[in-house]
Amino acid sequence: MRLGVIAVLALLPAPASAAEVLLLEFLCRGDQRLPVAHVLDGDAPGHAVIWYDGAMQVLPEITAVSGIAYAEPGYGLIWREKGVEGHLARALPGGAEEDLLFDCRLVG
Q1: First-to-last C-alpha distance (Å) of the chain
Q2: 69 near 63, Cβ under 8 Å?
Q3: What single DSSP character describes residue 81?
Q4: What are phi and psi of 8, to 5 degrees?
Q5: What per-residue string of b and e applies to 12-48 under the rule 16 or more CB within 10 Å gives b?
Q6: In 3D, which of 59, 103, 98, 105 has the Cα closest to residue 79?
Q7: Nearest CA to 21 among 4, 39, 6?
Q8: pTM of the predicted model as reported, rounded to 2 decimal places
């Protein structure tokens, strides 16, 4: 799966400078694994590339109260990390969220 995440990085717009890519893997409740690639380009907002439900998703960084968060615009996926923990949800109308993957912990 890591090769799939790396492959999607080629689809991102070329950064103005050398981007830093941090590859991580989380193990979530139910023994579900979630590979996450953080793409950082200096002061520009970052992106997370995740592989979920058989598809790669590129999520732009959003403002987070605590930790770091990435989300699709509108009613899409939201990935949050704080320390070694993560949580994947889907935004729903009215500000509610549906939990998709939770109790995620960084592997390795």
Answers
A1: 16
A2: yes
A3: E
A4: -70, -20
A5: eeeeeeebeeeebbbbbeeeeebbbbbbebeeeebbb
A6: 59
A7: 39
A8: 0.80
> What pLDDT does 2 receive?
47
Residue among 54, 65, 64, 61 nearest 37 (CA): 61
Rama region for 43: left / alpha / beta (φ>0; ψ in -120 to 50; rest)? alpha
Taking the CA atoms of residue 56, residue 4, residue 83 and residue 30 in that order, the dihedral angle to the nearest 10 degrees is: 80
Listed in sequence order, the residues at least 6 apart from 4 whose beta carbon sits closer than 8 Å to its beta carbon are 35, 51, 56
The residue type of 81 is E
CA-CA distance, 28 to 43, in Å (whole number)? 30
28-62 confidence digits (pLDDT tens) = 999 999 999 999 887 777 899 999 989 999 999 99
| Half-sphere CA count of 39, side-chain side, radius 13 A | 23
